[in-house]
Amino acid sequence: MTPVRYIAVQVLAYAIDYGSFAAFCFLGAAPWLANLFSKVLAGAVAFQLHRRFTFRVLSDRSELRRQALRYTGLLLLNAPLTSLLLVGILTVVTEPLLAKLLADVLAVAVTYALTKTVVFRQSL
């Protein structure tokens, strides 16, 4: 059931990510920069939803801080990675919105595995 909840949250977060990416591009931002900003915005929403809904983590404030730091670290890895994928894909696909979709699809499996095992891992 966790993968289904993860996908549901990711669909919502991706709507925020993709919508804000389109808005930043419309406002004239470079695609790589729009991607970074949209990832941060969507990531903040996704963290809270994954914590409460996907992985149903109920822990004290100190664990919340550790999880937030690990999730931020994951975002710091994910945002540049997808931006690099985006730049690479843009050499073949000239439409930024399609290129972003392709880059993000490539990154989703890795992100799920890391979120489950690194961010919201159960304490032993």
Structural class: mainly alpha
Shape: elongated
Beta strand %: under 5%
Q: Tally the structural domains.
A: 1
Count up the helices: 4
Largest beta-sheet details: none
What is the terminal-to-terminal distance?
A: 22 Å
How much helix, percentage-wise, in residues?
over 70%
Helices and strands, in N-to-C order?
A: HHHH
Give the number of DSSP strands. Answer: 0
Instruction: Please mark out the parts with pLDDT under 50 across 5 or more consecutive residues, or reply none.
Output: none
Rg over alpha carbons: 15 Å
Mean pLDDT: 87
Question: How would you characterize this protein structure?
Answer:
Helix 1 runs antiparallel to helix 4 (96-119), helix 2 (31-54) runs antiparallel to helix 3 (61-90) and helix 3 (61-90) packs antiparallel against helix 4. The protein has one domain (2-119). The protein has helices spanning 2-26, 31-54, 61-90, 96-119. With 124 residues, it is mostly helical. The longest helix has 30 residues, at 61-90. The protein is 83% helix and 0% strand.
